[in-house]
Amino acid sequence: MNFNYFSYLCFVWAAVGIITRILMITLGDKWNKWEMEHAYSEKKPMWVNIVAGFGIIVVVITWIQVFRLDVDYSWIIAVITTLSLIKISALIFNYEKFREFASETLHDKSKLLRLNISVFAASVIFIALGLFLYS
């Protein structure tokens, strides 16, 4: 198999999705407490701006690679990556509202289950894209 930027991007997205779901499920309330007290503390942590900046850079680099590399259907993962700007903008410009959403989701078992299933399914799709579409 011949992997490229887009296949690696898919694998990274999948790994993040799967690893965070495993941690959320195995740690349970400890994860919820850590996420709300540290990751999304009341005062917006500095990591939010750093990760948001990194995310924007990844989106820009991904679109540059769409036009630079000759990879069929590369625009699909570029669009999906661009959609991450929705979360990034919520974190930067509406942190309190995002924090409320995160807390509500973490404490509602039905919403949390739907989130975990969705992220896991997306991760499986990313793996398939990386293996079969982009390699």
Task: Describe the structure in your own words.
84% of the residues lie in helices and 0% in strands. Helix 1 packs across helix 2, helix 1 runs antiparallel to helix 6 (109-133) and helix 3 (46-68) runs antiparallel to helix 4 (74-93). It has helices at residues 5-27, 29-39, 46-68, 74-93, 95-106, 109-133. It has six helices and no strands. It is mostly helical. The mean pLDDT is 96.
Give a brief outline of the structure.
The protein has helices spanning 5-27, 29-39, 46-68, 74-93, 95-106, 109-133. It is mainly α.
Bin the strand percentage: under 5%
The Rg value, from CA coordinates, equals 16 Å
Structural class given helices, strands, pairing?
mainly alpha
Give the low-pLDDT segments: none
Query: Total number of helical segments?
Result: 6
- Number of beta-strand segments: 0
Termini separation: 6 Å
Mean pLDDT: 96
What is the percent of helical residues? over 70%
The outline comes out as: globular
Q: Could you spell the SSE succession in H and E letters?
A: HHHHHH
Index terms:
single chain; 135 residues; mainly alpha; 6 helices; 84% helix
